[in-house]
Design brief:
Helices cover 37% and strands 14% of the residues. By secondary structure, it is α+β, with helices and mostly antiparallel strands.
Length: 86
């Protein structure tokens, strides 16, 4: 792949990332992150994004702050809650 094509794809991907972040923030997320799927290669088997979607190249994460008082009475509370959807 030539250098110019890589640059234009990089700009296009950055624009797409910005659009995704904007949509998630508008939808109510407090934080948004996009990571390369390779960052998860050390995760336990069954917890890697590629275990669910073998062709995945990126992982998109949206976070919503939940007040501590909402979680105080949850059984087995360990300081954080993780919700995954596909």
């Amino acid at each position: 792949m030539n250098k110019l094509k890589k640059q234009s794809e990089g700009k296009g991907m950055e624009k797409l990332k910005d659009q995704i972040e904007k949509v998630l923030l508008t939808a109510g997320c407090d934080m948004v992150g996009v990571a390369n799927v390779e960052r998860f290669t050390g995760a336990p088997e069954g917890r890697r994004p590629t275990d669910i979607l073998p062709t995945a190249r990126s992982v998109i994460v949206g976070a919503v702050h939940i007040l501590d008082s909402v979680c105080d009475d949850l059984p087995g509370r360990s300081g954080s809650i993780s919700i995954s959807t596909i």
